[in-house]
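User
Please review the sequence:
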Amino acid sequence: MTSAFFRGPEAGGSLTPDAIAIAAEEMGVKKASYDTLTLLGLAVLAGAFIGLGAMFATTTVAGADGIMSYGLTRLLAGLSFSLGLILVLIGGAQLFTGDMLMVMAWASRRIATRRMVRVWVLVWLGNLVGAVVIAGLVFFSGQYTFGNNAIGIAAMHYAEAKSALPVVEAFSLGILCNILVCLAVWLALAGRTVADRILAIVFPVTAFVAAGFEHCVANMYYLSLGLMIRYGAPESYWTATGHAPGEIPLSGVLTNLAVVTAGNWVGGALLVGGVYWFIYRRPGKPHH
């Protein structure tokens, strides 16, 4: 895809920022043309990929409290979670948060509002299915009991904390998260090789996880797994862990997903896609 756009020799053959804007716009047009089954299939894959990244992150830091500093623990979680977006962008899938860049094609009047919203709705639903499937596999496989139950304890902690987040905090953390996720997608579009793209992805994704920002698709996994453990784990599990089942109210789960989704939309569609469209693609912009 990237070979169709101008590359700057000063950037080592990578796309220049104005060419990234063209590539992002073309990508939005292509996404809008997908039929429903293709879109849903790719969306389910993306939800599963993000779930795998979240599973990896939870596993790597499970039991680390008191052993490593908070910052190092979060850094390790972020590096591990990067797997999810690498699988999405290199393997090929449709992720709701990354699809916020479609606003660039819409702003240039190359896709209709209806088609853009159709993509966002179908992809969100497909992402949910994929994330829940991975959460279910982690639960039914018993993987959450590994590490002397440390993985399940960490998963429950995440779910409890997310379901209790105040609305303003969740919304703001969602904005910050998708600024970084969409910047990861933006930078990956500039890459010439798979290695280029992976390197472009890792730092922004690691930053958002390390900082504790909120990603709606990751939360689909974390909250689903937390609910499964909370209501499905046997009594022997709670006896072995020495923990009582935590509170993960369904109202808190639904509120978190709705509010974080809205924050992700603002961060990605307005503050990345919208800003870059205005800078590089607005009508009447002088060409240099």
Confidence is low (pLDDT under 50) at residues 1-11. The chain has eleven helices and no strands. The longest helix spans residues 250-280. Residues 96 and 124 are 5 Å apart (CA to CA).
